[in-house]
Amino acid sequence: xxxxxxxxxxxxxxxxxxxxxxxxxxxxxxxxxxxxxxxxxxxxxxxxxxxxxxxxxxxxxxxxxxxxxxxxxxxxxxxxxxxxxxxxxxxxxxxxxxxxxxx
Amino acid sequence: xxxxxxxxxxxxxxxxxxxxxxxxxxxxxxxxxxxxxxxxxxxxxxxxxxxxxxxxxxxxxxxxxxxxxxxxxxxxxxxxxxxxxxxxxxxxxxxxxxxxxxxxxxxxxxxxxxxxxxxxxxxxxxxxxxxxxxxxxxxxxxxxxxxxxxxxxxxxxxxxxxxxxxxxxxxxxxxxxxxxxxxxxxxxxxxxxxxxxxxxxxxxxxxxxxxxxxxxxxxxxxxxxxxxxxxxxxxxxxxxxxxxxxxxxxxxxxxxxx
Lengths: 103, 258
Fold this sequence. Notes:
The structure holds two protein chains of two kinds.
Chain A: E1 6-13, H1 21-30, H2 33-38, E2 43-48, E3 56-61, E4 66-70, H3 76-101
Parallel strand pairs in A: 1-2
Antiparallel strand pairs in A: 1-3, 3-4
Chain B: H1 7-12, H2 43-51, H3 78-93, E1 96-102, H4 107-119, E2 122-126, H5 129-138, E3 152-157, H6 162-171, E4 175-182, E5 185-188, H7 189-197, H8 201-250, H9 252-257
């Protein structure tokens, strides 16, 4: 997963709930060295609360778009693939734009 | 067609040829033996392959009909037992146990963090969920069970130095505090922060003592108010009389002198 078009990621969950496993694993995967190395400016914040709220992943992209994933019934792989596909789509768009500008 | 020389023929060759010749000899016809395409097998070879196909052995009674065998999972390897004992010891010895989520950190950062925490007498322990879960489910810490999912570490210590721990953890972005068990009370992250903001034990004791002493002091002052008022009035009266005496003594004295 390439995180270049991502500005910030906020992961919110309540560890005392029972449906947070996939969100926690997602957070762990995102903090891997290789993925963090693709974009050093991306801030990953973990919001740990205790109010029985649902696990939530909030991704802010560099072009202002926002992706909200409610991880209560999602698996880790689904979340990662969704994020990865969106990142790749944005990368392609940026490459096309830069190609149009250069010639 | 393969020119098949029968074994009898080879046997019938002159007795001075004591060697043997292969029973079947193949003759090149059309293409070579090793082709780049899949070469169709000779019919005899096809028949041989069909006859000698592998047939998997089937049990006489299908396993569904037999009674299910309960496989006893006795996975008590000594290592797991040792780890479990260590975990139990940890839970018994230490007053403060904090559970944090550990996302991968570079090794030097881990060592630095351990160093800072050990200065405050806090130990860092890496734990495996499979070992901790049975230990917790049997002990009284059942509510800590849902915490142990994905990679975790435990920060254990005998003193409750929460402020320093929070400061160190703030400096490390990849570790998130999930909850803590301080003096057998399970606290969430918010609870831990509130606990850090509490004043020290002596200050709180002094505050409670002062609050408790406030009421009886109020009652005693109320009770004494009447008699205190009376004594104050009498004092005032005496002072006025004295002032009157001195005044009257002063007036006749200057009257006498003049």
